[in-house]
């Protein structure tokens, strides 16, 4: 099989996988569609198995295609590492793919990342947002070199380096927070809770607390961004269970208040990497920079 493989076939394979379309992959790579079709046919012949199922609205991987994906991503990673190794004598260069939780990145990532880019202008840091489970999968599948997550996954194949101590707390507009201060958990029964939904550990932690208190809110709302959650809380429309780091400015300004009787939950943001994989020089530099740039500061009062 190996003698029939060409690197560009694997590049095209990943483009089709990510675009879920032969035509969109061709557009992305600057090919005509017949070139993509031909390369995928040759790749399937080399693999001896069908790699894609053609659907009315695109394509999706077969079981064999999913197995090949792991090795295709390893191939791409090795290519990047080889390029960096050949440029070892010059300034550090290369690409680092970082997965982050949007709520944390919005408040804590961009300052340190700007400083890193100034120190290493030839290193391209690509940032994508995702929840913890998605980030773990991306790191394992080599879709990301490292991830920023809000808790240690306690996984044997992943390393976790603590980065920043934080805490989850219940927040609301001052009037609603005052009502919670008087009534405690019983006030929740007439209030909505805003969050990211069940994929987010903040929302799961909130639901666990509600279950422990044997209470339920009047309603739940799921939003795609921390900004929407904060605006919903500031308006008095909902309360939320979020990291202090994400609402520190609003708490200081008095537009949000902590629902202190409901308690807090400590968390620790950190960097994860895949143990079996040796990190590239660029990824090692970013990892060391983030750990040493002051993001470890304890934000808990």
How are the SSEs placed, and which strands pair?
Elements: H1 7-19, H2 22-29, H3 33-47, E1 52-55, E2 58-61, H4 63-86, E3 94-100, H5 102-108, H6 110-119, E4 123-129, H7 132-140, E5 146-149, E6 158-172, H8 174-183, E7 192-195, H9 201-213, E8 219-222, H10 226-234, E9 240-243, H11 244-253, E10 257-258, E11 264-274, H12 281-292
Parallel strand pairs: 3-4, 3-5, 7-8
Antiparallel strand pairs: 1-2, 5-11, 6-9, 6-10, 6-11
Helix pairs in contact: 1-2, 1-3, 1-4, 2-3
Structural features, described:
The chain has 12 helices and 11 strands. Strands 3, 4, 5, 6, 9, 10 and 11 form a 7-stranded mixed sheet that branches. A two-stranded antiparallel sheet has the order 1-2. Helix content is 47%, strand content 22%. It starts with 6 loop residues before the first helix and ends in a 9-residue tail after the last helix. Residues 296-301 have low confidence and may be disordered. The chain folds into 3 domains: 2-75, Orthogonal Bundle (Arc Repressor Mutant, subunit A), CATH 1.10.10.10; 87-162 and 269-292, D-Maltodextrin-Binding Protein, domain 2, CATH 3.40.190; 166-267, D-Maltodextrin-Binding Protein, domain 2. It is an alpha/beta fold and 301 residues long.
Q: Report, as a whole number of angstroms, the end-to-end distance.
A: 60 Å
Order of helices and strands: HHHEEHEHHEHEEHEHEHEHEEH
Rg calculated over all Cα atoms:
23 Å
Q: What is the approximate shape?
A: globular
């Amino acid at each position: 099989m190996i003698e029939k493989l060409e690197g560009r076939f694997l590049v095209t394979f990943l483009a089709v996988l990510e675009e879920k379309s032969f035509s969109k992959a061709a557009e992305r790579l600057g090919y005509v569609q017949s070139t993509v079709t031909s390369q995928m046919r040759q790749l399937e012949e080399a693999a001896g198995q069908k790699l894609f199922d053609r659907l009315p609205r695109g394509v999706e991987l077969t079981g064999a295609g999913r197995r090949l994906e792991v090795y295709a991503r390893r191939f791409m990673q090795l290519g990047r590492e080889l390029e960096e190794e050949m440029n070892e004598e010059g300034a550090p260069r290369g690409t680092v793919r970082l997965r982050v939780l949007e709520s944390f990145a919005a408040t804590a990532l961009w300052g340190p990342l700007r400083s890193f880019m100034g120190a290493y202008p030839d290193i391209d840091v690509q940032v994508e947002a995702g929840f913890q489970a998605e980030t773990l999968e991306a790191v394992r599948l080599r879709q990301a070199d490292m991830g920023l997550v809000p808790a240690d996954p306690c996984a044997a194949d992943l390393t976790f380096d603590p980065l920043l101590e934080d805490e989850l707390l219940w927040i609301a507009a001052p009037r609603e927070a005052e009502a919670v201060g008087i009534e405690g958990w019983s006030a929740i029964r007439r209030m909505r809770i805003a969050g990211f939904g069940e994929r987010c550990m903040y929302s799961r932690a909130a639901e666990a607390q509600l279950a422990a208190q044997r209470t339920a809110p009047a309603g739940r709302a799921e939003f795609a961004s921390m900004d929407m959650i904060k605006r919903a809380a500031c308006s008095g429309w909902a309360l939320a269970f979020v990291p202090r780091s994400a609402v520190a400015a609003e708490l200081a300004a008095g537009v949000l208040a902590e629902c202190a009787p409901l308690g807090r939950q400590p968390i620790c943001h950190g960097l994860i990497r895949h143990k079996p994989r040796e990190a590239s020089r660029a990824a090692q530099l970013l990892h060391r920079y983030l750990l040493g740039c002051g993001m470890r500061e304890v934000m808990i009062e």
